[in-house]
Design brief:
Number of strands: 13
Shape: globular
Number of helices: 12
CATH architecture of the largest domain: 2-Layer Sandwich
Strand content: 15-25%
Number of domains: 2
CATH superfamily of the largest domain: Dihydrodipicolinate Reductase, domain 2
Length: 345
């Protein structure tokens, strides 16, 4: 059994981790922390977990966390980087669901997150945890930076085109839409149902903090700097991300070959589903599941390839991918605890 600690367990990603780990046959949650809710039984806050966990939230205790095999951080940005060095010294493995270790250029990180980075040596050594790209490095990693939700859907959608060099890497467009749970569980007026319902808007159009992470991942796939325009949108649903991606072909490749390119790239990936060309993946088809579904489109007499990519922002975009990374790190079947199909309706 893998002894698990979760730091910051009261948010949506924390409870999603608990939901997944409750049925994971090789994971045992030893502790789950929350400074604000210390002493409160987990099942009192999240009644869906009654009968699955007898734990109560506790204050973060480095000594207790050091007794775990792996610790998940489901905390606001800036928390993990202060606690991780001590856990690393104790030999604990970590999957960080915040952005603290995702971006390698720490000046860029500080500019977007508004604080200096406090663990630069570990930022340099962290493995970016997109299993479809870095599986071998994840197996050996002590610290894995779990990708963000938008970056997951966007990178998976663009990867085959960039890896094959078939598109102009300087002219990529990512149009993303997310449900309200992507903003977290904090009480914010802008996230109230009366504010979000019956409305649809763009945000962060002048620049969003996921942009440098997206840029970094796509540049690695392309083997060169990329130019990407990313605009996120808030839609009136609880969970789910849809990313519509646009890229300009630089060759005369026929559309059938592009479809084959995607099918070949993801043939052995358990959590990426390339749908038939012309399909329109729906967010409800991945709700509660660790899958990314995508489909290719190309309009008549156009050199623009359109990729539509959907994930559940709390699962493949957060907690599910974190458990997938844990499975890889400990040499388990990568799908363990993650085989449940999506919820419909």
């Amino acid at each position: 059994m893998i002894k698990i600690g979760i730091v910051g367990g009261t948010g949506y990603t924390g409870v999603e981790l608990l939901r997944i780990l409750a049925v994971h046959p090789e994971a045992q949650v030893q502790c789950i922390t929350s400074r604000s809710e210390a002493g409160v039984p987990v099942a009192d806050m999240y009644p869906n977990l009654r009968g699955h966990f007898d734990l109560a939230f506790s204050e973060p205790d480095p000594a207790v966390l050091a007794g775990c095999d792996l610790v998940f951080f489901a905390t606001p940005h800036g928390v993990a980087m202060r606690m991780v060095p001590e856990l690393m010294a104790a030999g604990v493995r970590v999957v960080d669901l915040s952005a603290d270790f995702r971006i390698k250029d720490l000046d860029t990180w500080a500019r977007w997150y508004g604080m200096p980075h406090e663990a630069p040596e570990w930022a340099a050594n962290a493995v970016y945890g997109l299993p479809e790209v870095a599986r071998n490095a994840i197996r050996q990693a002590q610290l894995v930076a779990n990708p963000g939700c938008y970056p997951t859907a966007i990178q998976l959608g663009f990867l085959p085109l960039l890896e094959s060099g078939l598109v102009d890497a300087s002219r990529l467009i990512a149009d993303g839409k997310s449900g309200a749970s992507g903003a977290g569980r904090q009480g914010k007026i802008g996230m109230l149902h009366g504010e979000v319902g019956e409305s649809f808007k763009a945000y962060g159009a002048s620049g969003h903090r996921h942009l440098p992470e997206i840029r970094q991942g796509l540049a690695a796939a392309a083997g060169q700097p990329v130019g990407v325009t990313f605009v996120p949108h808030l839609v009136p649903m609880v969970r789910g991300i849809e990313a519509t991606l646009y890229a300009e072909l630089t060759t005369a490749d026929d559309f059938e070959r592009l479809q084959g390119l995607y099918e070949d790239r993801y043939r052995d990936e358990p959590f990426v589903d390339v749908m038939p060309a012309g399909s329109h993946p729906e967010t409800r088809s991945v709700r509660g599941a660790n899958h990314c579904r995508m489909a290719l489109h190309r309009q008549e007499d156009s050199k623009t390839v359109i990729v539509t990519s959907v994930i559940d922002n709390l699962v493949k975009g957060a907690a599910g991918q974190a458990v997938q990374n844990m499975n890889v790190m400990f040499g388990l079947d990568e799908t363990l605890g993650l085989k449940a199909p999506a919820l419909l309706p």
